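Annotated sample (chain length 74).
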Amino acid sequence: MDLAQVAALSVSLTATEHDQVQRAATAAGQSVEDFARDAILGAAADPFLAALEQAVDTVTARAAEDQVRHDYAG
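Output written by the structure step:
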């Protein structure tokens, strides 16, 4: 396992936040680690996020196509 990746994925939680995650993990029947892993991977694979990224690309491409070009000189 790449230690740089582990450091990048570690998150500091307050005691209240840790308790909240612990309760949610228990309610889901998972360990905190499994619960956090599922939440992280779920967020990374979020179809809404993918749609937003695609929308940015589409709007950028259309904006470039729709630019008015004035070729008066020539």
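Annotation: The mean pLDDT is 81.
Annotation: Residues 15 and 31 are 17 Å apart (CA to CA).
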